[in-house]
Amino acid sequence: MTIIEALFLGLIQGITEFIPVSSSGHLAIIENLLNIKDVSGLPFAAAVHLATLIAVFAALRREVKKLFIEICRGIYDITENFRIYRHNRHEKDARRYKRIVSNNYRKLFLLLIVSAVPTVIEGYLLENAAIFAGNSLFTPAVGMLITGIILLVADFFPRGRKIPKDVSYSAAFVIGVLQGLTVFPGVSRLGITLAVCLAYGFQKKFAIKYTLLLAIPVFIGAFILECTQLPSIPMTWGLLGCYVLGAAAAGIAGYFCIGKMMKVLQNKKFYGFSVYCFIIGGVTAVGSILFS
């Protein structure tokens, strides 16, 4: 892997990760066309996922901070309930317990957990199949076409009004299961998850934030999995520089892309992204057939 390749792949990852056009599909297509897959691909993927994780934390720092505060308060309330239970049992009293899920941020945290669990499990189980699928042009092309269809359909969903307090845990679980299938290249995690949220009647602004926040456990899981499977390759200063520069490109591009796309996705339809996926997927599918 050269510095130019690392910067190019990092930039593509950072931009396409946070728009509904599939970053994995773009990377699979580019890597197959330019034949730049090598043994350094896995540690590079780990570095890039770490960078995009940092980008999400930075771009959504207010939401993450509020979630963290409410998690700490929730833990405190749980410990207080244990104390109340012991008091009531010992003193034959009837003190009221504190309500644990007392606001939207606490409910949001639980919803994210419920969605993240099936996604991470599926990602682990389907990892080898996804890697195999990414070794050809045809599979990511089909994934892009599927993404285009789903985005096109999503434009016809009625505008929802649900915020965390209105969302069921079963809906969060289904969202997580369907998001887990986006491990295959070409199927956009952001696009599919956002479409499913809208189908469940999420308020569009909340659906976007939920989808982006749900990227945090996904990136953490991907980073840990990739770190546990790192090949024993000799590390050189040049290779280390490629990882750092590629990750920096992904992180910086991702940070600016998140803020921009939150406004674009909230105010516009998905038609343009759908057409883009159809064009890239169609051209790639035809090319894979003609030149196979």
Automatic annotation (TrEMBL):
It comes from the Bacteria. It is found in: Cell membrane. Its EC number is 3.6.1.27. It is a multi-pass membrane protein. Pfam families: BacA. One of its GO terms (biological process) is response to antibiotic. Keywords: Antibiotic resistance, Cell membrane, Cell shape, Cell wall biogenesis/degradation, Hydrolase, Membrane, Peptidoglycan synthesis, Transmembrane, Transmembrane helix. It catalyses: di-trans,octa-cis-undecaprenyl diphosphate + H2O = di-trans,octa-cis-undecaprenyl phosphate + phosphate + H(+). GO terms for molecular function: undecaprenyl-diphosphatase activity. The chain crosses the membrane at residues 40-60, 108-126, 138-157, 207-225, 237-258, 270-291. One of its GO terms (cellular component) is plasma membrane. Belongs to the UppP family. Bacitracin is thought to be involved in the inhibition of peptidoglycan synthesis by sequestering undecaprenyl diphosphate, thereby reducing the pool of lipid carrier available. Catalyzes the dephosphorylation of undecaprenyl diphosphate (UPP). Confers resistance to bacitracin. PANTHER family: UNDECAPRENYL-DIPHOSPHATASE (PTHR30622). This is Undecaprenyl-diphosphatase.
